[in-house]
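Exercise 7.
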Amino acid sequence: MVYQMNYRMGVKDPKGFYFEMGPIRPPSEGQAQSLLIRATRNCPWNRCEFCPIYKNVKFEYRKVEEIKKDIDVAKAIADALKTASWRFGLAGKVSNEVVRAIVQGNPEVYQRDSNSELKLQNLINVANWLASGAKTCFLQDANTLIIRTPELIEIMKYLKETFPTIERLTSYARSKTCAKKSLQELKDLKEAGLSRLHVGLESGCDEVLEFMQKGVTAEEHISGGKKVVESGISLSEYVMPGLGGRKWSEKHALESARVLNEINPDFVRIRSLIVRKNSPLREKRESGQFEELSEDEVVNEIGLFIESLNCSSFVASDQMSNLLFEVEGKLPGDKEKILEAIKQYKNKSFMEKLKFRLEHRLQSYLGVYGGLAPELNQKIQEAQESIQKESPQAEAKTNQAIAALKEGFV
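Solution. The predicted structure, written as tokens, is:
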């Protein structure tokens, strides 16, 4: 069996045999098993109240040559995986057994080095990418578009020359950065291979944007988004139900729809608010400055948002923070189907809603972590039992269990 075999890569310098990867990527890039290449470190804005990811770390540009070296390391790993596969008679197919053989055969890289865990993440990322067809790549971190256009073009060209199988090259970007780039620059980036930009709209309501310190206005969202669409680069805009809290819920839904109707992006991706640990918004919630919506109130807000959309975008619900995965489809044709899914949830009895919410949140958690810690499992069981018995404590126990699950959401 392959798992009993070892494969020596012949690495001359095991200390340098890894490439940088940032902390996040869009869910769709995870589904596609995209190769992750870190072009910048962290976030150049880094003030959004709801986001804890890059707090207490500074933004850094990376040198082009440094990024090229990372691409070379990814290529060396890919070559090793493919060579091992052929040696084991798998005709280039990359499997878990091939990965295991490389780990076992190179202990100085994957077991004894101080960066072994990071190198193992590299190996798994490249292996999954090859197994999925080696067609997609995501440039990290939070706003790669901020790189000077000639340098970004150089990076993308080198990446595609190194990996000719890449068909889709994507990145995060801020609306303000999109607006500042000239249309010609964006067209040049499209020509060089930039396929899609993922932009955090979050809200089209100026009051919400200001309160959350998003650093952009609704009109700047529109300006940047329309420019990307005109350039031919595919655009995914993320909207965050619940971000307006109770104070601005209705206006947040209506204004977000208005802005997206103006932009008409390829994708509208729903990413419901979770008030995360270590985010400034968590403190505002505890102090009463921000009043969080209940699950049902978020569903109502999403319904108003969908009703108000008049674009031809594909609405995607591909983030684990979302309760209703069924809120998905191509507009305008699937609008009624989406609204019907929302209606079906709203028509459930109180206990049916509690059961639905707990099951969906648990499903999302297990999809990422595969299991539950004993303390969390106990909370889930208590909630399930209280729902089954229709206990007066069912709502409180269910909310406690869901809150605990959400602490692990990414």
